[in-house]
Amino acid sequence: MARKLPATDVLIVGLGWTGSILAHELARSGLNIVAIERGPWRDTATDFPPAYAQDELRYHIRHDLFLRPAQLTMTFRNRASETALPIRSWGSFMPPNGVGGGGVHWNAETWRFLPSDFQMKTHLTERYGEKFLPGDMTIQDWGITYDELEPYYDKFEYLCGTSGKAGNIKGQIQTGGNPFEGARAREYPTPPQKQPYGPTLFAQAAKDMGYKPFPQPSGNLSQAYTNPLGITLGPCTYCGFCEWFGCGNYSKASPQTTILPALVRQPNFEARTQCEVLKINLDGSGKRATGVTYVDTSGNEWEQPADLVLLCAFQLFNVHLLLVSGIGKPYDPRANEGVIGRNYSYQVTSSVDAFFDDKIFNPFIASGSIGMCIDEFNGDNFDHGPHGFVGGGYMGAVQTNGRPLQTTRTPKGTPRWGLEWKEAVAKNYLSNYEAVTHGSCCSYRDVYCDLDPTYTDRFGRKLMRITFDFHENELKMSQYLTGRLAEVVQKMGPRQFETKPRRGPYDVTVYQTTHTCGGAIMGADPKSSALNRYLQSWDVSNLFVMGATAFPQNAGYNPTDTVGALAYWAADAIVKQYLKSPGPLVQI
Amino acid sequence: MKMRNLMTLALAAYMTGTIGAWAAEDGQSFEKIERGRYLAVLGDCVSCHTAPGGKPFAGGAALETPFGALIGPNITPDVATGVGAWSEEDFRRAMHEGIGRGGARLYPAMPYPAYTKVTRDDVSAIWAYLRSLDPVRNEVQPNQLRFPFNVRRPATSTWDLINFQPGVFQPNPSKSDVWNRGAYLVEGLGHCGTCHTPKNITGGDRGSEALQGALLQDWYAPDLTEDPRTGIGSWSIEEIVRYLKTGANSYDIASGPMAEAVSNSTSKMTDADLLAIATYLKDRAPRSGRAVTALAAANPRMVAGQAIYEDRCAACHSRSGAGVPNLFPRLASAPLIQSVDPTSLIRAVLIGSRAVATSAAPTAPAMPAFGWNLNDTEVADVLTYVRNTWGNAASAVQPEDVSKLRERLSSR
């Protein structure tokens, strides 16, 4: 039996990027805020100091910073005809855990989505006709435009100090930036990071082919930066231990390096770590959240009443909590009805591996987000008419790391172990290069999340079940994008190269990207979306759901900039509209 | 709550028989209490008289001295456990003469050798403020000294005869008002010398070496004289003000006991008072020390130290020792780095250290501990390198010093 605690104004579930942003914005309004975080408190010097932050075995192979599946996992199957089984070791994606969430271990690639991404359904239908889209594709417009979100992108990037080169300032195309991007109000807060040899060579090849290469926008900073909250970040040292790792040098934008030092000074803010929320409680009408029930490490259950509940956990866990709390109608793929679990999606990555005889790339000189990219094949930046698919992605030479244990690319035909393999690894370590594509993923009627009928967690809650596979559209896209990338790589002059487009079926055991999305999407119609344009639940108006959970489908970019922008957008709506008159912000 | 508070105060006044005894002025006027609150900030009373996580002024913070620990007593107006039974005159004697209620001599951990300079008016205002606090019942045993130091001090104290010069601050008419305000604050309420002035064998100030830097609680409070190498000679008035106000400037970030002083006291001072303090400090003579020449770069310890520095330290502090303002302290031409006594440096390398957070500079970065994977010689070598590179010059750090400090820190 849960013991009831004194009520608070705002209850935040999960203290990662979105939880920290919302907590800080609302604390400034004087509200009392309690954040409940499943994992531990984490701090740069204490938890990932430079003395041991760069430990590939501990963090990459043994998943030190991530959620332990024994604490909570989900089941997976590729299609509805299969029986889902629990994921017992993370593979394809890495659910974060602890204060800072995914912001601790991300690569810090800080992209905005394209203006047309936010009106994907309308835009593609207008350009190519409705019949161009596969019948089971369930892509939707977001219910918000790029222009509406722009000030909030700006706010998040200036919080992070993002290093980059603008390609479009107020409609004026800027030399050296991404000419395809939506108009931004001003230049990036800091200049781009330095580029190593590989990306420089890629950019030259791309330029020679008529493309417009530009530096990838980076949350690993090119120089020291003090953000509007007065918090200082240091310059990146290009150590190449970003993704999977915490940054020991205060150089990677994370809640720890950009918000938490200011947030913890707010006397009306309180964090309870290592406390796991079991469910969001509703009143008798089912239309109002009354708070949450959570359990501490001693197994004590607590009920924390609150006037406003902000669901800020990682995408998968937001959907799980909505399902186990009975909020919103669960999605039924047969009837194509219901909203919770609908439009789950992912991303489609691929690579071209090239091997050179005469070039030394020093892959260990790296940051999670340095690199030179081109955007000619992203979104609807090119005519899809002749190709028979929609979507796209950025591609480029992104030098994220040359870590010693797992940087073992060898040419085709090399044995997979033994002396010959070792010699090939040593021979190619410095002189191979992997270029990548980072592609979108549309949503489909038969791709979704629901509660598993068989497996439960340690509290007896049903695990969430993911049903996901790549569709023909995405595989065609990956084939096409990887082919274009290979042309650029060939121009770089390798001895040999291998084109590795993504092939189905989707394998949940092989790491691809942690950019899962959807499941409680935003939109204009409560029949096909769980959240309105302010990320407010259509069903429970004092509940807002943050994160990539709200994406109706995934774009060909890393999601964090959009996640951060949506959090600021929602915070603004809560402060300026909701608090003045609590209730639904969109009337239907 | 308020009513209970008033009743307790009234009861306290009745019991001590002081009602009306000093009613010539309104001891509870807003102006006086508010002035007293600010003066208590200037004096940083809260630091010693508050336990970690405890109620302000209710006592309990331990000050470690070479003679044992002294705990700051409860100075809320609680009759049984605080100063509720004290009169204003009792308080004035404590501040000015180091004599507590009933004639007990205070230990000079209470900085009465500095507070004696505080004007009667200011003492009275602080008292008015303390009387306005909620009485907190919290029994504190201040005297945790080892024998024989824990024996109650006699009424006439040899220590006071040697070390204590009573008397309110006398302005220097040849100096500006700003200078005199600064001197009043530094020498009086600010009691900077309590930490920064070297002590004699009895723990008293070595008057001739005022603010030249001193060791306490295994921290070295740095030289505050105009010395260009070890002191603040290279700091402008603006840089000093910024340091005190935000905890950080282009050279350094406060940590350790100074972090507490910044957090509780200097960051809450008015800009005018900070300017006064800086003006006074900048007008003092440099410490009298022998010239120091840097160790040669080819010295084996320097070579070893450089290798460690580039592996372990340069990522943050940069190869040029320039650091990053507000984040990674500058090591090149930094006074603390060239201190006569390297204790704070050894300490930071061994067990790490967290910088102060202020509203103006909230980052609060931390130096991680390296004691677990650098041995005593390596710590000594890297610090020797840092103390003798980029224009720095200071004595080499000895492995034995690292070893001793490591032992003391681990026995805490």
Structural description of this entry:
The complex is a heterodimer of chains A (588) and B (412). Chain A has 13 helices and 24 strands. Chain A is α/β, with parallel strands linked by helices and 588 residues long. Chain A is globular and about 70 Å long. Chain B has three domains: 2-140; 177-282, Cytochrome Bc1 Complex, Chain D, domain 2; 300-410, Cytochrome c-like domain (Cytochrome Bc1 Complex, Chain D, domain 2). Chain B has helices at 2-15, 30-42, 45-48, 88-97, 112-115, 120-131, 158-163, 177-187, 193-196, 237-246, 257-264, 271-282, 300-317, 343-351, 376-386, 399-410, and strands at residues 62-65, 68-71, 143-145, 214-216, 219-221, 353-354, 366-367. The radius of gyration of chain B is 23 Å and the shape is globular. The interface between A and B is medium-sized, with 24 and 25 residues.
Can you describe this structure in just a few lines?
By secondary structure, chain A is of the alpha/beta class. Chain A has 13 helices and 24 strands. Chain A has a single domain (3-578), classed as FAD/NAD(P)-binding domain, CATH 3.50.50.
Features:
heterodimer; A: 588 residues; alpha/beta; FAD/NAD(P)-binding domain; 19% strand; B: 412 residues; Cytochrome Bc1 Complex, Chain D, domain 2; 3-stranded antiparallel beta sheet; 16 helices; 7 strands; 38% helix; 5% strand; globular; disordered N terminus
Instruction: Report strand % of chain B.
Output: 5-15%
Average pLDDT level of chain B: 90
The 3D shape of chain B can be described as globular
Please, how many domains of chain A?
Answer: 1
Low-confidence stretches of chain A: none
Distance between the termini of chain B: 40 Å
Category by helix and strand content of chain A: alpha/beta
Number of helices of chain B: 16
Coarse shape of chain A: globular
User: CATH-wise, what's the superfamily of chain A?
Assistant: FAD/NAD(P)-binding domain
Q: If you compute it from the alpha carbons, what radius of gyration of chain B comes out, rounded to the nearest whole angstrom?
A: 23 Å
User: What proportion of the residues of chain B is helical, as a percent range?
Assistant: 25-40%
Poorly predicted regions of chain B = 1-23
The CATH architecture classification of chain A is: 3-Layer(bba) Sandwich
Structural category of chain B is mainly alpha
